[in-house]
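Technical annex B. To support the medicinal chemistry partners, we prepared a structural model of the target in complex with uracil, based solely on the information shown next.
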Amino acid sequence: MDGEGVEPCGRPVFVNNPHLDALADDVLYHFSLGTKTHNLPAMFGDVKFVCVGGSPWRMKSFIEYIATELNMEDPKSEYPNICVGTDRYAMYKIGPVLSVSHGMGIPSISIMLHELIKLLHHAHCSDVTIIRIGTSGGIGLEPGTVVITKQSVDATFLPRFEQVILGKTVVRNTDLDESVAQELLQCSKDLNLFETVIGNTMCTMDFYEGQARLDGAFCSYTEKDKQDYLNRANEAGVCNIEMESSVFAAMCKLSGLRAAVVCVTFLDRLKGDQVNSSHEVLHDYQLRPQKLVSCFIKKKLMTKAGSQTA
Ligand code: R2B
Ligand code: URA
């Protein structure tokens, strides 16, 4: 059930894998979906915006929020999890917006993105924009500041993602879409609700030692070593630290998806390591990327509707 013969118009979603053609059924195992068992073009063909974020709960709350913002609320407030057959990831859809959770860290988001990119491809989606909404540790920023990623850099501050394939290291580009980043910044100015900056985001393999924390189970460096490292990151233009942006940027670029990363900062890492703000404060912070992205999606849909009636 791959909607054969339906050609996407506009910018398609690319896969680059000759082996896929040999599959009678492409099972998207971690979504509990497949090309034989589900009519993916009918279920997802109209998707234009995909929002991804770590927690299933946050991605459900995002779909409820955007549904209200777009006046598309379900009267019964029922937003079923499309991936109900698995507890690996959660997925919700309202109109042209898909909301998907990705778990924590590069391996988890990478598995999700392989299946998501294939899903969008099999569904013949076109002109899709994908945005990661997440949390992060800030560097020299007031907690609650939202960072729109300019470049995702690795732990040595270089804009690259290294993937080991067949035992060899392949280096991939981590460019994100500059115009989407600028449009998101403009949304923040329009909303005027919280501080937003554009800057580099460091993507690490770990929350504790990988992010120079002093409060993990193990630590082999001094407080001065930590401060020197974070100061060097700051000088290299790093505004925040999280754990998924590099592979997200690399995979979206390979598939031709317009991509952006919007993360709120929970703390200033130059001042401490523990996330100890109250639940209410953190909840309010987490809503900020959602508000920005909702504003972006609304604007885009209004512009499109305007151009269609003109
Ligand atoms: C931000 O927050 C999570 C760790 O707490 C991780 O998924 C990330 O990128
Ligand atoms: N997420 C991270 O990866 N690091 C932080 O410091 C906070 C949230």
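Notes passed to the chemistry partners:
The chain is about 35% helix and 25% strand.
Residues 133-310 form a domain with the Rossmann fold fold (CATH 3.40.50.1580).
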